[in-house]
């Protein structure tokens, strides 16, 4: 899919914000953010990708674009968060994006990081927090679905909303078609949200 051009102008003072992306899966939003971040005026530079899944395809995307990437097991949450904080500090990360990251970060981690953390979720929050959003939306025969970018707190998908995009659900919609529809909007909304944060 061709990348939609976004108009943006960030007050960068000649410097982009060094950013890390946490992933657990295919890295679709990661790839989109990398693409946008290569534009001169986009406010962030992705300097690190961390996955809690060793098989995450997003790690291959990071490798392709020569971005430092690391697998850290999340089987022990305390150890995972401690190791992540060390990596973030070592790489001078000042902004954290969660993109298909399937774990809830603790209050202790959020406080220790001390910088902004945002997430993208495939529903119109506060509706349908958590997993299986497309299935639940279709089961309830909703007319609309969408996606939400929000700040991260210690509760699941409950932080302050930055932006949302609503989409119409077709009568013959399937989980697969709805997912693709929402995902296409996620790529645009995530970039727009980052632009708005650093205006």
Short description:
By secondary structure, this protein is of the alpha/beta class. The chain has a single domain, classed as 3-Layer(aba) Sandwich (Rossmann fold), CATH 3.40.50.170. Helices cover 34% and strands 22% of the residues.
Describe this structure in words.
The chain is an alpha/beta fold. It has one domain (17-197): Formyl transferase, N-terminal domain (Rossmann fold), CATH 3.40.50. Helix content is 34%, strand content 22%. The chain has helices at 28-37, 58-64, 77-90, 107-113, 133-139, 175-197; strands at 17-23, 44-51, 69-71, 95-98, 116-121, 144-151, 161-168. It has a seven-stranded mixed sheet with strand order 3-2-1-4-5-6-7, with helices on one face. Helix 1 (28-37) packs parallel to helix 6 (175-197). The longest helix is centred in the last third of the chain and has 23 residues, at 175-197. The model has no long low-confidence stretch (mean pLDDT 93).
How is the secondary structure organized here?
Blueprint: E1 17-23, H1 28-37, E2 44-51, H2 58-64, E3 69-71, H3 77-90, E4 95-98, H4 107-113, E5 116-121, H5 133-139, E6 144-151, E7 161-168, H6 175-197
Parallel strand pairs: 1-2, 1-4, 2-3, 4-5
Antiparallel strand pairs: 5-6, 6-7
Helix pairs in contact: 1-6
């Amino acid at each position: 899919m061709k990348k939609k051009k976004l108009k943006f102008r960030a007050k960068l003072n000649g410097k982009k914000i060094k950013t890390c992306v946490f992933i657990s899966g295919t890295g679709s939003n990661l790839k989109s953010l990398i693409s946008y971040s290569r534009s001169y005026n986009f406010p962030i530079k992705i300097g690190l990708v961390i996955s809690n899944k060793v098989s995450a395809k997003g790690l291959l995307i990071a490798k392709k674009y020569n971005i430092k990437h690391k697998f850290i097991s999340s089987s022990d949450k305390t150890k995972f968060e401690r190791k992540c904080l060390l990596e973030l500090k070592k790489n001078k990360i000042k902004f954290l994006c969660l993109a298909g990251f399937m774990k809830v970060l603790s209050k202790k981690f959020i406080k220790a990081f001390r910088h902004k953390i945002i997430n993208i979720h495939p529903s119109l929050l506060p509706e349908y927090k958590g997993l299986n959003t497309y299935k639940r939306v279709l089961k309830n025969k909703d007319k609309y679905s969408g996606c939400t970018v929000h700040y991260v707190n210690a509760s699941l998908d409950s932080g302050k909303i930055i932006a949302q995009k609503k989409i119409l659900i077709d009568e013959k919609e399937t989980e697969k078609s709805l997912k693709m529809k929402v995902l296409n909007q996620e790529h645009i909304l995530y970039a727009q949200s980052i632009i708005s944060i650093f205006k």
